[in-house]
Every structure is written in structure tokens, then in C-alpha cells.
Design goal:
Helices cover 33% and strands 25% of the residues. It contains seven helices and 13 strands. Strand 2 and strand 3 form a beta hairpin. Helix 3 packs across helix 5. It starts with a strand and ends with a helix.
Length: 251
Amino acid sequence: MRVLILNSGLGSRLGSFTIGSHKSLLDIGNKQTIYGRQLSFLSELGYGKEIVVTTGHNAESIIAYTKREFPELKIKFIYNPEYSTTNYIYSIYLAREFLVKDDLLLLHGDLVFDLEVLRRLIESNVSCVAVSSTTPLSEKDFKAGINKFYRVETISVDNYRNAISAQPLYKLRNADWLIWLEKIIEFCENGIKNCYAEKALNMVTNRLLLYPVDYKNLLCSEVDDLDDLSRIRKEIASESEVNNEKSIHEF
């Protein structure tokens, strides 16, 4: 299975925090960055050799960090020269030739999650997306529209109908992914490059089988703004305290 990490964005909602670096390299506590936590988990589960990372804003900082902190990983970097005027649908388009042969694990570079969330998706034998039945719907975040067959019909920010909180973490079987990718290519080659890739997905969900994987109260959240960053840092601190107490009891 190939891994695609989308890391081209500006991170403008974080203001000065991303001027000299990249959002994915923000310190979230416990000696971790968002991107570093992702790579550590992927490596732990055996997926450190087939990773594609799209870049744009401050690409050099992501590349330097990867080479310094994870020299053992095999990563292909794809630069989006139009990162400031396009969305990640175009970054996927630029990386398309490296994404056609295998199943795909697709995630946003600003997504912080527990190892168990990643494990559940990887172990699924169907195409799936991470959702939470216990997280209140947020105005700014994705929602998954679920039909009566418990399949995902839509992924969008605006749709609240039959909706459940969702995050941009997908495990896609190759046949399903190629249907979505074909529509992404069609969008981009027709000049539609500044929208979510999910806009293309929503036009083909009737042709593929996408199911929700419910992580409930486990950590899985994007860091879009300063409020998100503060909340995630508190959760990571709490996670660290639990792990320290567990180590003491085991000792």
C-alpha cells in the first residue's frame, strides 16, 4: 500500500506560526511535530517505504526535517508550484503517476491522530474514511453523509444531512481509488484546481464502495487554527501523562 501525505498548503489561519516553517512541523508537545508523529506511526506499522509527500509552502523545511529526523524512510516529494492559488486536488493531480498501482492511504499533513485510528483503517478490508459518532459536527470540518446501507455518499464541509463528523484520513482499495483519481484528473485538466478533492469524490461515490470507520473518542483532528493547536497540545500532554503513569506502574 502506498501512502500520500498532502502537505502543500499555506496554513494561513495559523498566522506567524507558519511564516518561517510549515504547519505540519508545529510542535504539538511530547517532543513531537504533526508530520513527525505521522511518519513515526507509519513506520511503526510497516508503511515507511512507499510514501509520497506533496509540498508547496516552505517545501525546503519539510524536506530538510524528513532527511534529518527520518533518514531511513523512502519518501518521494512532489512540489506544487501553484500551491498559493490551488487546493490539494491539484497536488494530487501532480503526484498521480506515483499513485496508480497500489491501494492508497491518503491523509492531510495537518492531521493529528492516535496510532489505533491509523491501525483500524489499515486493517479494514474495504475502502474507508475516519469518522467519529461522538464528536459534535463542526462548522469548519468535514462531515460524511451516510446512507441507509452505511456507505459514505458525501464528504463535505457544508452538508449536514445524515451527517457524521469526518476527518481526511482514507484507506482506499486500488479499484475505488482509481475511480476517484480519474475524476480528479478530469477536474484539473478542465481548470478546476482550487477546490477540495472531495468535490470530485462526491460525483463518483455511486461507483465505488466507501465505508466509515468510527474512531469515536480517540484523537483524530486537523490543526487548522490556533484554537485547534491549543486543544491538540492539551490532548498530547494528557496522553503523555497517561503513558508516564502506565510506565511507572509497569516498572
